[in-house]
Design brief:
alpha+beta; 8 strands; single chain; rod-shaped; Endonuclease I-creI; 4-stranded antiparallel β-sheet; 2 domains
Amino acid sequence: MSFSGDVKRELTGQTGKGRHCQIAELTAIITMCGGVSVSAQDRASLRIQTENRHVAEKACVLLRKAFSVNPETGVRMYARSTVFLVAVIRHEDAVKVLRSCYLLHGFGGVSDLMDIGEELSLEENIILQKTCCKRAFLRGAFLAAGSISDPHRSYHFEIVCPSPGKALQLVDIFASFGIEARTVGRKFNEVLYLKEGTQIVDALGIMEAPRSLMELENIRILREISNDINRRVNCEAANISKAVAAGVRQAEDIEYIRDHGGLCQLPENLETLAELRLEHLDASLQELGRLLTPPIGKSGVNHRFEKIAGFARQLKKKKELHD
């Protein structure tokens, strides 16, 4: 099973102890993948459709715990997918659930049923006033319409929302926990997403998925160690490459001076360093500095090589003028 599937399986077993949390989680599931039908006799029924078995199982558990409702279940097989169905057929039960989730107003007549909405703002709706209920709501939203990429490859958490309003609502809830989520349009949906590993870890903690959180943390630590090692290796390789290139340039300047009048043209301190460079082509500036008498530091050696390079440039200019 994928990491995302493992997270959802863990969240399926995590149910809030309070009825208010159970209602909040069920509300999120209904608004993400549920719908209401009204018969010609003004009888309502509630249906939840999902391609994830864990979502269907969780919806059944919540309906039984929060409302003592035993829903009907079914499975539909299609060419490329399997859809799990959860249905509350009895009108009275459907109305009770919808009204408790603040998805229905009035007394359950046909006019009220046709006015089903998503008035779930943090300021006005009692369902999302408590922190525990916000956790439950995010858990339900992720179960119904969320996914997480394989953290070995990349960090990406998303919830596909049926409307921009729902996405903004989830953004506000995440913000109440100090997480800055972003949204982007995708076809007919609005997608909330997180791209940073630390944010996804925090999100798993908020939704109460401790096993998945620890697994992701372990993966993050290993990736950071590996990335740190790679950065150091690359940095060291780059430094070695620069040192080799500099050594080659220094040797070329020294050889040019030697072949056009000899190294004796140089001051004694530069002549000594030039001879050391030709004897130790692979030596670093620090190593060359330690070979001098008296020893000098890296910056001092570099300064002397700059003087040698300047002397070589002057010789080349003189040769060009004579030629």
